[in-house]
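Entry 14. Structure prediction run on the chain below.
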Amino acid sequence: MTPPDATRGSRAAGETPVRHLVLFRFRGDAPEAEIGEIETMFRELPQHIDGISALEWGPNHSAEGLDQGFTHCFLLTFRNAAARDDYLPHPAHLAFVARLKPVLDGVLVVDYHPASDD
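Output returned:
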């Protein structure tokens, strides 16, 4: 198995992007207005934190019934692992987490390096 920071294809180890997948499950009593504010705060993080090269997000639309109550998905792309590491303790991220926690019932985070067929 190839270590996560090893060279893949033509990318040097420190240049490999990192995907940061975040799923949220909100408390049942979380007001929709607060959830909307949290969506906005998350979408604005790239304006405040260097190293985020892309952000996709959306509410769950799956018909499979396998979401375990997770309702929102956010996918951040960082230039590399160092950029992701800088994001975690960043004041804008910490402020977002502080705003999120009172209405959060569950969170799932997965970080990965995009696979390449190179």
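The radius of gyration is 16 Å.
Filed with the rest of this week's runs.
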